[in-house]
Amino acid sequence: MTVLASAAPDASCYSSAVNNWVCPSYFRDKADDLISATTEHVTITVAAVLLGLVLAVPLAVVARRYSRLEGLIMGVSTGIYTIPSLALFPLLTPFTGISATTVIIGLALYTLTILVRNTLAGLSGVPDEVRESAMGSGYGQTRLLLQVELPLALPVLMAGLRVATVSTVALTTVGSIVASGGLGNLLAHGVQNTFKAEIFAASLLCVVLALALDLVLLLVQRLLTPWARAGA
């Protein structure tokens, strides 16, 4: 781990005497630390969002088909989001230990408030005449969901997925409280040691990572929904 007092003599811009915010030599000298932290950050973020999506879609489908459960499902998913991460992660540690699994599960639960809501909105937005036409053609409930409803709900679902991913990139940094925060570990270390170059580098990489993942999801959305692109 980088220690401010042990900065290389020729890297004056992040030495204890200078301690600049922007220091190109820090990126060069500490490239291994930055790459390792960024890799962990991406792994945790992607795993959490995928787990959240796996949980959210069935919940949204249930809420759509059983209107009496919609309020309960939306209330629980929103209520989880209000739990501070400093409280949620310790609640999970007795079951998952102090590990990346704790962070992934916690972040996945946080994505539910966005993913369930957007998936439900997408499913609800499918025109009734489309459903009736499909069922009149012999589609069962499962086939109707997989081949008609979910494809038509994709634009709204993907919009929620993009928001959830960007917010998860930021929330992953909180995982530093259990030593699995990716770039958050560098942020915490930098704040603790008033190490400006480390704080700036970790923050910049978080922003770049969020923009990159959002762009990737936008491209995926365009590939999966050619009809929406043609309509636009």
Protein model, in words:
It is built from ten helices and no strands. The protein is an all-alpha fold. The chain has a single domain (about 40-225), classed as MetI-like (MetI-like fold, Orthogonal Bundle).
Name the descriptors:
single chain, mainly alpha, disordered N terminus, 232 residues, 10 helices, MetI-like fold
Please render the helix and strand layout as text.
Layout: H1 24-29, H2 31-65, H3 67-81, H4 85-96, H5 100-124, H6 128-136, H7 141-172, H8 183-192, H9 196-224, H10 226-231
Helix pairs in contact: 2-3, 2-5, 2-7, 2-8, 3-5, 4-5, 5-7, 6-7, 7-9, 8-9
> Which segments are poorly predicted (pLDDT under 50) over 5 or more consecutive residues?
1-7
Task: Write down the CATH class.
Answer: Mainly Alpha
CATH architecture: Orthogonal Bundle
Radius of gyration from the CA trace? Answer: 22 Å
Sheet/helix structural class: mainly alpha
Strand content: under 5%
CATH third-tier fold name: MetI-like fold
Helix share, percent: over 70%
Q: Helix and strand string, N-terminal first?
A: HHHHHHHHHH
Mean pLDDT: 88
Which sheet architecture does the biggest sheet show?
none
The name of the CATH superfamily reads MetI-like
| Outline | elongated
Total domain count: 1
Gap between N and C termini: 49 Å
The number of helical runs is 10
Number of strands: 0
Short summary:
The chain has 10 helices and no strands. It has helices spanning 24-29, 31-65, 67-81, 85-96, 100-124, 128-136, 141-172, 183-192, 196-224, 226-231. The protein is elongated, with a radius of gyration of 22 Å.
